[in-house]
Write a structure and sequence with these properties.
The structure holds 2 protein chains of 2 kinds. Chain A is mainly α. Chain A has one domain (2-84). Chain A contains 3 helices and no strands. In chain A, α1 (2-26) packs antiparallel against α2. Chain A is flat. The relative contact order of chain A is 0.13. Chain B is an all-alpha fold. Chain B has one domain. In chain B, α1 packs antiparallel against α2 (31-57) and α2 (31-57) packs antiparallel against α3 (61-90). The chains are: A mainly alpha, B mainly alpha. At the A-B interface, α1, α2 and α3 of A face α1, α2 and α3 of B.
Chain lengths: 88, 112
């Protein structure tokens, strides 16, 4: 019964990702695009966890944890590049 | 049965916070206000959805892993939001017209 709700929320999160992609395409400055990609990666972590529960695959949780770590590192790197101009 | 109903209610609240964050990302006029909206989506939305999955799973191995994911996301995502705001402020991305701010953070934001 609750699996149907998990599937519906997966589809809803994918639609929200498309709305975020509109902001990442239009957004007037660099920081708007960085914010939008950060939100998309957070939604991707939630979708991976939901898919892991729906299909009973436990190793998707490890992939979601590593994806959260990589998205955090990417955001920190892009913010530092935006501030300093170089990465060193 | 009662646990499934509580889990469904928490899941709906998480989806609601994601929707609020995306509406704020699309309609707010400025970088900083958009960042203010999407931070709710990062912490409350994903936290409530993962907590709902924890309630559905019960106490098991994957549930502990999901708890670790909640703690990591709650530590890392506000840090990333602060880094983006600091970088956007220090390269003079313009604010919306009519913003009042104190300029003393300008010297502090030049060093990481």
């Amino acid at each position: 019964m609750l699996i149907v709700a998990f599937t519906a929320s997966c589809i809803f999160l994918v639609l929200m990702i498309f709305l975020c992609l509109y902001r990442a395409y239009v957004g007037p400055t660099v920081a708007d695009r960085v914010i939008s990609i950060n939100v998309i990666s957070t939604k991707a972590v939630a979708i991976m966890t939901l898919v892991s529960i729906i299909f009973h695959k436990e190793y998707f949780l490890d992939i979601a944890l590593v994806y959260a770590l990589i998205s955090f590192l990417a955001t920190i790197g892009v913010a530092k590049y935006l501030q300093k101009g170089v990465l060193e | 049965m009662i646990l499934e109903i509580i889990s469904l209610i928490i899941l709906i609240f998480g989806i609601f916070f994601f929707m609020v964050g995306v509406v704020g990302l699309l309609r707010f006029p400025d970088v900083y206000t958009r960042l203010h909206a999407t931070t709710k989506c990062d912490t409350l939305g994903v936290g409530l959805i993962l907590f709902s999955i924890m309630l559905y799973q019960g106490f098991s191995g994957p549930s502990i892993k999901i708890g670790l994911m909640i703690i990591f996301i709650w530590l890392s995502n506000p840090t990333a939001a602060h880094a983006i705001a600091k970088a956007a402020y220090s390269v003079d991305i313009p604010m919306i017209k009519g913003t009042v701010f104190a300029d003393q953070a300008k010297e502090e934001s030049s060093s990481w």
